[in-house]
Amino acid sequence: MKVYRIPMVPGPTSVSREVLEAGMVNYGSADLEGDYVELYAATTGMLAEAMGTKGDVVLQTGEGMLALWGAMKSCLRAGDRVLALSTGLFGYGMGCMAESIGCEVRTVGFGFDETLSDFGLIEEAVREFRPKMITMVQNETPSGTMNPVEEVGRLKEKYGVPLLYVDAVSGIGGSDVRVDEWGVDLCLGGTQKCLSAPASMAFLSVSGRAWEVAEEVGYAGYDALLPFRTAVRDAYFPYTPYWQGTAQLHRACELLLEEGVGKAAERHRRVAEYCRGRVTEMGLRLYPAPGAVPSPTVTAVVVPDHMDWKTLDGRLRAEGVVMGGNYGCLEGEVFRIGHMGTQANMNLVKEAMDVLEEVIRK
Ligand SMILES: *Cc1c(COP(=O)(O)O)cnc(C)c1O
């Protein structure tokens, strides 16, 4: 197994020793003991603070995708109308997920290198289609872009759309997320991006409205949200909770709140700006189109003409640097520098940029 000196992958991000060690403990039976319930409540409380909500946060064993699926299946039935605002792989993917549940999906789509714009067009779609749920991605990781949620939240309120579903998996902990202020009903998160905990837990905020809808739908399944509504009150979980993983996430949340959510977002913003500056200076092209909002947690760069991704990746790895490739139509075309969580570190990114500059000159 190879170990890299300079990890720059946009998730899973490198986990600090202290977060790892927080999980190196043997406990009693997580589904029976009051200590676990306290740990769960404290952890979800800190996550709520990181997401800007006074409402409920649910924590499940799994990864980000689990929250995406669980929230959708818990709140949608076949035939429900879903408006998928899409600017990238995850945004379009959500439309496909809703279709697989049998929903009637309308997509308002933009280029993968764009962010949501033309709110007149979006408003028209909301007014005309009357969706039960609007889906969108706050931080589109494969594209290195960040979408505005606030404007969509306003449209949701204006037209009385029941649910706004936002994937903020790679934004929470590294950007300003304001669930209550923006009117988000289901805000999806994961541990292995900006929180830099192991890829073991998924979490999401659930608004009062979303709980009502979940009660109405009554979905039962391994990924169902409903059992978590009363988990703390009744000290009862639908399956054995992952005590060590929760303890690691708890430590990661403490570190985030000790720094301050606003300060952490500022750190990410500064590092991202530096990264984009260096990439541009060395003659590479940023993937996001002019006018699109670049992400503060991940920078997407076009693979240079004179070198294919495999070669570039190999040369970076030989120097101890590992960056992210891409998926789907971006595979081989766009690579990514994940400056999120522990990797939103100016010295680390500077080292990575020095290596990248040298490698593309060869
Ligand atoms: C990482 C990520 C997810 C979750 O994917 P996992 O494979 O479960 O980690 C979802 N959405 C976005 C935008 C992501 O970056």
Short description:
By secondary structure, the chain is α/β, with parallel strands linked by helices. Helix content is 42%, strand content 16%. The strands form four sheets. Strands 2-10-9-8-5-3-4 form a seven-stranded mixed sheet, with helices on both faces. A two-stranded parallel ribbon has the order 1-12.
Gyration radius, rounded: 20 Å
Total beta-strand segments? 13
* Category by helix and strand content: alpha/beta
Q: What composes the largest sheet?
A: 7 strands, mixed
Mean pLDDT: 97
Count of alpha/pi helices: 13
Portion of residues in beta strands equals: 15-25%
Share of helical residues: 40-55%
pLDDT under 50 segments (min length 5)? none
Unique bound compounds: pyridoxal-5'-phosphate
What distance separates the N and C termini? Answer: 27 Å
The geometry reads as globular
Widest sheet: strand ordering: 2-10-9-8-5-3-4
Elements, N to C (H/E): EHHEHEHEHEEEHEHEEHHHHEHEEH
Describe the structure.
This protein has about 350 residues and is α/β, with parallel strands linked by helices. The protein has helices at about 15-20, 35-50, 65-75, 90-100, 120-130, 150-160, 180, 210-215, 230-235, 245-260, 260-280, 310-320, 345-360, and strands spanning about 5-10, 55-60, 80-85, 105-110, 135, 140, 145, 165, 185-190, 200-205, 300, 320-325, 335-340. It is globular. The model has no long low-confidence stretch (mean pLDDT about 95). Bound molecules: pyridoxal-5'-phosphate. Pyridoxal-5'-phosphate (PLP) binds near residues 90, 137, 169 and 193.
